[in-house]
Amino acid sequence: MTDVATEKPRRGRPPVSDEQRQRQRLDLSRHAVRLFAEQGVAATSGEQIAQAAGVSERTFWRHFPHKESCVEPLLTKMVDAFCAVVRAWPRELELIDHLREAYSPLLDAASDEDIEAVLAVVRLTQGERALRAAYLMVRERAEDVLADVLAERAGLPRNAIEVRVQAAAMSAVLKVATDDVARAAADGVTRETLEGHREQIADALRGLSQVLVARPGPLAR
Amino acid sequence: MTDVATEKPRRGRPPVSDEQRQRQRLDLSRHAVRLFAEQGVAATSGEQIAQAAGVSERTFWRHFPHKESCVEPLLTKMVDAFCAVVRAWPRELELIDHLREAYSPLLDAASDEDIEAVLAVVRLTQGERALRAAYLMVRERAEDVLADVLAERAGLPRNAIEVRVQAAAMSAVLKVATDDVARAAADGVTRETLEGHREQIADALRGLSQVLVARPGPLAR
DNA sequence: CATTTATTGGCACCGTCTGCCATTAAGCGC
DNA sequence: GCGCTTAATGGCAGACGGTGCCAATAAATG
């Protein structure tokens, strides 16, 4: 009825800004991931994480509904960066080529420590099934972005079966490549490891278009 | 040193057979899924499931490490059946055609109640993130089987990047199709719904081979 | 029946996570 | 500065998830 932000004398303490909230979560997240990597998820209690970050256990649980969701802010940060790159994918370019161009800036945008932490999380998801769920949730968000972009480029509705399948397939490609790199970076991340990721993705994308057996292609004809 | 099974007078009560163990788990699983569907996962306590199945809470927890893993036996049963079909895929046939032939027997092998229960679980995984992890775990096992079969047919090592990517992509296809059917079967499963699944898979497989934008195909040339 | 081993159930206990309330912090007008 | 209002925090009790331990029972052998 009345205007948007008017009619609001706003008395009392204002809520903290959204960015600040994110920063708090991110801080908790970094401590949590460090502890997870050092001693495992099961052996790390919520109390411990809270203490490491200097807040009470109660407020820790207010920030994260489950212990595993601690990894989310860190992962989200990287995935969002990647999504931004995908969204900026120009029509006239191959995805591979676009990634080749945009990949390095993506790496520069994040601190080395965060990159290391993210890869540590990905590695942890191999054995710690509790983290797998969180990991796959944020991957799913990325898949939706991918589907949006694909749909727009193909001129199809977002939920067309072809679009969803393609998005799922490409998402799978990214997953395979990322897992490989995370494993490769088990002991120390170098610039080469990360550049390798780009080429892994390229390889994997090629693998996708090869279509070993799923259809009667030129190979089988 | 000594022979395999000899030298074992085997005194005392013998361990229960593996099949019997599986049957017990399956029984628990059915009760659990029913309760999950009726009142949600969070609102269903381990004690409740145990009581429904007529065992103590303690032995319930001995059968399942986490509450969510209750769904595993049911899902595994279906996935194993599907894997068997994939393994039997003859070289000279298209996958789609093979599935068309083998699909009905697959349905006949399971009770209607179990099929309904499985679809209910898949539907639940949409909203209950706790179940998502369990669901994705058994899907991953299926992906490995797929990779094996693909590797053998293509004459490549099991962990070749192309193989893994293809397996992941096909697995994604199955996931998309299955989710669609589970949604469609929200109110009552009919034979048509299930036959529809086969066609969904076929559609999705076609979608996979279309390759909207991932490479310079005839469309982009 | 006595013996041996596997399963079961009961109990105590730690960690996860929530609801509730008192306390503190951050803004406002005065 | 002082109230006043609202948001964030911390502390506490408690339900639920899940494990270790031990006693009781079940199923085999002789």
UniProtKB/TrEMBL annotation, chains A, B:
Which GO molecular function entries does the Swiss-Prot or TrEMBL record give?
Answer: DNA-binding transcription factor activity; transcription cis-regulatory region binding
DNA-binding positions are 45-64
Entry-linked InterPro entries: Homeodomain-like_sf, HTH-type_TetR-like_transc_reg, HTH_TetR, MftR_C
- Pfam families referenced in this protein's UniProt entry, alphabetically: TetR_C_14, TetR_N
Q: Where is this region: Disordered?
A: 1-24
Positions of the HTH tetR-type domain: 22-82
Q: Does the keyword Transcription regulation apply?
A: yes
Q: Which UniProt key words apply to this protein?
A: DNA-binding, Transcription, Transcription regulation
User: What protein am I looking at?
Assistant: Transcriptional regulator, TetR family
Q: Which organism is it from?
A: Lentzea albidocapillata subsp. violacea
